[in-house]
Design brief:
Layout: E1 2-9, H1 13-25, E2 42-48, E3 55-60, H2 64-67, E4 78-86, E5 102-103, E6 110-114, H3 132-140, H4 150-158, E7 169-174, E8 177-182, E9 197-200, E10 204-208, E11 222-223, E12 228-233
Antiparallel strand pairs: 1-4, 1-10, 2-3, 2-4, 5-6, 6-7, 7-8, 8-12, 9-10, 9-11
């Protein structure tokens, strides 16, 4: 299980970084889950405005409160940033190869996921699931995909076998746009944990797995409608 945040527009990068450290520690938790901390690594994708040649990424296997503030990410000048903090549900999926954002070789897609999708391996011809987020990535954004067709992606989500999955919440990011997938499985029993929220100002848009009062008062956050996909352009100038 994981937490994610995406910011676009004019914002202070350090504020977003500090917000995710607080989320990873459990400071902002308000949900049904029996846990609040997400200590098993973090990763980020951003557009570096000082070197606008596409997207940059960073991954770290240590807890965000240990390494995120020290990473230098807070000083990056950017108008697009997504951060993922992780809590693994299995000791077999700890390490750099399991740390989001996921990326396929030779493709410019990045992928961050919050939830469990242990049944999508069936669509990939695999005998069993070994890393559900990677399998979900391959299922939702097939290799060679240039852009995400929202109606087709929603149909893929509706076809995921039940029971077993709980959330398909994800950021699918490529250099010119990011897709926010907000999908709660029919068998989900943690509606507050898997509800993403959005706050919008004239200059900035932030989408987060949790309401973060340090970024905006609680009354300025609104829940995203479930079973939706948003397309967010990424600036390129």
């Amino acid at each position: 299980m994981c937490r994610m945040i995406l910011a676009t527009g004019k914002f202070n990068t350090a504020d977003i970084v500090q917000a995710m450290v607080a989320v990873a520690r459990g400071d902002t938790a308000d949900h049904e889950a029996s846990f609040s901390q997400h200590p098993h690594g973090w990763g980020a994708v951003w557009r570096d405005m000082d070197a606008p040649t596409g997207l940059s990424a960073m991954r770290e296997t240590t807890a965000a409160e240990i390494s995120l503030l020290a990473s230098g990410l807070a000083s990056v000048k950017t108008d697009f940033l997504a951060i993922h903090v992780r809590r693994t549900t299995s000791s077999t999926t700890i390490g750099a190869q399991f740390t989001h954002p996921l990326k396929r070789p030779a493709e410019d897609w990045y992928f961050m996921h919050n939830g469990s999708q242990p049944t999508v391996h069936q669509f990939l011809g695999l005998p069993s699931s070994t890393f559900d987020s990677a399998e979900y990535f391959d299922y939702l954004v097939p290799e060679g995909t240039a852009s995400l067709d929202q109606s087709e992606a929603l149909e893929r989500l509706r076809n995921i076998p039940e029971p077993g999955s709980n959330s398909g919440n994800a950021f699918a990011i490529k250099p010119d746009c990011a897709y926010v997938i907000h999908w709660r499985s029919p068998s989900d029993t943690w509606p507050r944990y898997f509800t993403m929220h959005e706050t919008v100002s004239p200059d900035c848009r932030i989408i987060s797995s949790e309401i973060v009062p340090a970024l905006a008062p609680a009354e300025q956050w609104t829940p995203l409608p479930p079973q939706t996909i948003l397309e967010i352009p990424i600036p390129n100038d």
